[in-house]
Design a protein that fits this description.
By secondary structure, the chain is an alpha/beta fold. Helix content is 34%, strand content 18%. A hairpin with a 4-residue loop joins β18 and β19.
């Protein structure tokens, strides 16, 4: 990269004489260097701190993405901190961002933010819908990759933007849960996205689902998929890399980099790695000889996911019905989650109830189960309720949201006229995969 720059001789000698820390043109070198770019005409000289053109462009690009994701504070801070505000490109960007920031409006009601969720996506419909005993389950609870991509496109076109739960409400220094300002352009709407059971469960093997989530050569999240020959191929075969790709192309689909929440159980491990000591440890029925390596790899994947705007939630270790089981059972299960999953994901403050089975009705949370969950660090709670486009509740120390299932059941309910809840989000007739068994009849 340095070859693009011709240091002006005089400055170069000054630089050396001043005994600066070598000749590194790194961002942290504060010395003044005068450069001219070979692309610029003549020998235009400008005294700016030691930013190479490449570094400047990287900074501008980074600030641009932040601005596209409505984080003008970050974009402006980045550019100001660069200490090259005299630079006309930087100044122009700063002026732009100040202007655009003034057009943002505060989202009018944080209690009215929809939350949609998926299960694992079907990568190969011919395998999932092959008529075996699992077919009906996949029909009911899953959507295909094609369906998911159409849904994301439609959500984007309708002005939805992905936010995380902490963008909506957060605990303040007094321990109270309080709404946060979400500042958006007037035509945009916040939306929470989550995905449950991203374990690539044992039962899914051979049914057209990926094997795991992993990291590609560029440091991005990708899936491993075993093709018919049993060869591992990599690509975007599930929600996480698909949303990552989508936000890469449409940065303005994400609010300040937020993507979605991944709700994990523990009994089959996580993210496609058989990491559970109780299920796959040396004394278990199905020992995984690579368990330590798999645990390390799962942790690496989780870390990259967090950097890319994903958060994690407990879905209970054993996919428990939290509303029904005894408090002792719930506690044992959640401690197991903490032991086996938390070392991989890091601490979580969100519980996404398996089966959507909440610990209470619509009244404010109280009682022993709530006290237990609170003592275990949970501040965000999510159940399932598709009776309206959004439902939430803010308590003194928690925020709870209802989620709408995006799956075969919900889409069939729309096609048969039983439910209109998806209308605000996408047109089911355009999304519904014709490769689903019985699709022709439903789409008539
Ligand atoms: Zn589940």
């Amino acid at each position: 990269m340095r070859k693009n720059f011709a240091l002006i001789g005089a400055m170069l000698s000054l630089f050396i004489m001043a005994g600066c820390q070598g000749l590194k043109l790194s961002a942290d070198t504060a010395a003044l260097v005068t450069y001219h770019s070979s692309q610029e005409s003549g020998l235009e000289k400008r005294a700016i701190p030691s930013k190479t053109r490449e570094e400047k462009e990287k900074l501008l690009a980074e600030a641009k993405v932040s601005s596209q994701q409505y984080d003008y504070e970050k974009a402006i801070t980045l550019l100001k901190q660069a200490g090259i505000s005299g630079d006309k490109d930087i100044q122009r960007a700063l002026d732009d961002y100040e202007k655009q920031r003034n057009h943002l409006v505060k989202w009018h009601d944080n209690s009215k933010i929809p939350h949609l969720f998926f299960h694992s996506l079907i990568a190969d419909a011919s395998k999932a819908f092959d008529g075996d005993s699992m077919t009906q389950g996949y029909q009911d609870y899953m959507v295909t990759i094609d369906e998911c991509k159409k849904i994301l496109n439609e959500l984007y076109k309708r002005g939805y933007i992905l936010v995380n739960l902490e963008d909506i409400a957060k605990t303040n220094s007094e321990g109270e849960m309080v709404y946060q300002d979400i500042l958006l352009p007037p035509d945009k709407k916040p939306l929470v996205l989550s995905q449950d059971d991203v374990s690539y469960y044992e039962y899914m093997m051979g049914d057209g689902f990926p094997k795991n989530l992993t990291i590609d050569a560029n440091g991005n999240i990708t899936n491993t998929y075993l093709n018919d020959k049993g060869e591992a191929i990599h690509g975007s075969y599930d929600l996480v890399p698909i949303v990552d790709d989508f936000v890469e192309q449409h940065p303005d689909f994400s609010y300040k980099g937020s993507k979605g929440i991944i709700a994990l159980t523990g009994y089959n491990g996580v993210l496609g790695y058989r990491t559970s000591e109780s299920s796959y440890g040396p004394n278990s029925e199905k020992p995984n000889p690579n368990i330590k390596k798999d645990q390390q790899q799962a942790k690496k994947v989780a870390n990259v996911m967090k950097q890319k705007g994903w958060t994690f939630a407990s879905h209970t270790w054993g996919h428990l019905d939290a509303g029904k089981v005894s408090i002792e059972h719930l506690e044992r299960d959640l401690l197991k989650w903490k032991r086996e999953v938390e070392p991989i994901t890091g601490p979580v403050n969100t519980i996404i109830f398996a089966f959507g089975s909440d610990i209470g009705d619509w009244h404010r949370y109280s009682g022993a189960k709530y006290d237990l969950l609170k003592s275990m660090g949970f501040a965000y709670y999510a159940n399932v309720d598709a009776s309206s486009t959004s439902w939430s509740q803010i308590g003194p120390d928690y925020f709870r949201q209802a989620r709408i299932n995006l799956d075969g059941i919900r889409m069939r309910a729309a096609l048969t006229g039983q439910s209109e809840v998806l209308k605000d989000f996408f047109d089911v007739e355009r999304v519904f995969d014709p490769s689903r068994p019985g699709a022709n009849k439903l789409l008539q």
